[in-house]
Amino acid sequence: MPVFPELPSATDLARAVTTGDATPRALLQDALARIEAARDLNAVVSLNDGAAAQADAVAARVAAGERLPLAGVPVLVKDNINVTGTPTTCGSRILQGYVSPYDATAAARLTAAGAVIVGKANMDEFAMGSSTESSAYGPTLNPWDPARVPGGSSGGSAVAVAADLTPVSLGSDTGGSVRQPAALTGVYGLKPTYGRVSRYGLVAYASSLDQIGPFARTAADLAVVMNVIAGHDPRDATSLNAPPQFAPGTADDLRGLRVGVIRESLDGNTAGVTAALNATLDALRGAGAQVSEVSLPTLRHAIATYYLIAMPEASSNLARFDGMVYGPRAAAGDVTQSMTLTREQGFGREVQRRIMLGTYALSSGYYDAYYSKAMRVRRLIADDFTRAFLDVDVLVTPTSPFPAFRRGEKTGDPLAMYAADVDTVAVNLAGLPGLSVPAGMETVDGVALPVGVQFIAPALQDERLVRLAGGLEAVGAVQVARPAR
Q1: Where is the catalytic site (predicted)?
Q2: CATH number of 10-229
Q3: Residue pair 418/425 in contact by the 8 Å Cβ criterion
Q4: pTM to 2 decimal places
Q5: What pLDDT shows up at residue 339?
Q6: Is residue 191 among the annotated active site residues?
Q7: Cis peptide, bond prior to residue 92, ω within 30 of zero
């Protein structure tokens, strides 16, 4: 049985270990019990055999007087983030049996700060999806309604926090894969500025868009995790030299804040999403913020632009997976046949679709018509954001136009699935930080489902978003609830 009836925050757990009121081993056993009790959600795909040794090492460091910001805190990380001695499969059959020989920088920084990495969280195969239904391990279920998806592609990481398996977790966000599942499960999800968190050890989907980010229940936990994982890494050529200075804010951080509501995001939302957005805006006004509407006309091209960039990058990145070095190799008459058969059998349907479309967009005669043009539109989208930030401090949209949808509802319609990212992909295209804040509930078919509001800041102003989250908590505008289990 779990040690705690309700899982405390990471900040509180680390304090308990530091003061001797809890031990890293006890917290690890608590996390394992929670994972076992929630096995039906299919949020966790593998456990870290080295977790007990990590916990004991943390206990020794604390006993020696070290002050560790995440002392003993159990963490789950997405299955595309490498952890030494632990399988990294990206939710794909093609990496079955692959065990990482090294740590991703983000994982190494977690353990250096005293965290205990318990295991790996389920995900859409190679992070390509918005529902966590395409994993070779089977779909992850939403703890608010197991008949519905948790969002994706970092659905397992979102459920880990929403269902109280661990107080924080890591995911990756290429077009909304941290923020959208955070909204659909009722927790915080932060996509940092591109380059703010090292991508070393993150298996690439689309290299110019991918970014590791945390899930949490509190602004304080977002702050402590970002202070640990952010910062320059010489092993990542895109890493930025921007030392983290995160802290949760107060109501004072909302006074005078200029908030721009993106006009193009106001159509096509469900009634519950619209109500949650309006309630958040009312809370901001009540706290002294200045709220106005702004227009970013190029956002109507964001979905098409995103996929015309992400798919070609995926085609290039996934060319390395052919059975010759990683994962199982299909038996065939010659090497070429073996590679072809390995990819046919190893990749799922959605990954194959994106590889083929990406290869087409890069092929002779189409590169200029599709990929090059998309890159030019990407620049226009970034310019629209730059102009908007001349007049406002943060922008706000719904995170998703709807709450969690039913499993299987969109799997047969790729375009409908892609449209689930309509409010999030532009942030990745522009390389900006975005935060999904749990903002309310919408009742669908008699079931209360979480909805989220997304805040966007200028590049390298990630700290502003975490202060904003703390301010919203202070005025009671954050709706973090726990699903009944």
Answers
A1: 78 (charge relay system), 153 (charge relay system), 177 (acyl-ester intermediate)
A2: 3.90.1300.10
A3: no
A4: 0.96
A5: 83
A6: no
A7: no
Q: Say how many Å lie between the first and final Cα of the chain, rounded.
A: 14
Which residue in the list 92, 130, 177, 239 is annotated as catalytic? Answer: 177
What integer pLDDT is reported at residue 333 of this predicted model?
77
Positions in the chain whose pLDDT score sits under 50 = 1
Contact between 31 and 13 (Cβ < 8 Å): no
Q: Kindly state the tokens that stand for 159.
A: 């459920």
Annotated catalytic residue: which of 46, 100, 153, 169?
Answer: 153
The pLDDT of residue 222: 98
- Helices 219-229 and 105-112 cross at an angle (nearest 10°) of 110
CB contact at 8 A, 144 and 448: yes
- 148: its two tokens: 């519905």
Please report, for residues 198, 200, 204, 304, the alpha-carbon distance to residue 212 in angstroms, rounded to integers and kept in the order given: 8, 10, 11, 23
Nearest one of 282, 315, 273, 318 to 449, comparing CA atoms: 273
pLDDT value of residue 3: 63
**In the sheet that 74-78 helps form, which strands lie side by side, from edge to edge?**
44-47, 116-121, 74-78, 168-172, 212-216, 188-191, 434-444, 447-456, 394-398, 258-262, 290-294
Of 355, 454, 278, 334, nearest to 92 by C-alpha is: 355
Burial of 300 (0-12, 13-18, 19+ CB in 10 A): exposed
In which residue are the tokens 């190893």 written? 346
Catalytic-role residue among 46, 78, 198, 410:
78
Amino acid at 458: P
In the prediction, which pLDDT does 122 show?
99
- Whether 177 sits among the annotated catalytic residues: the reply is yes
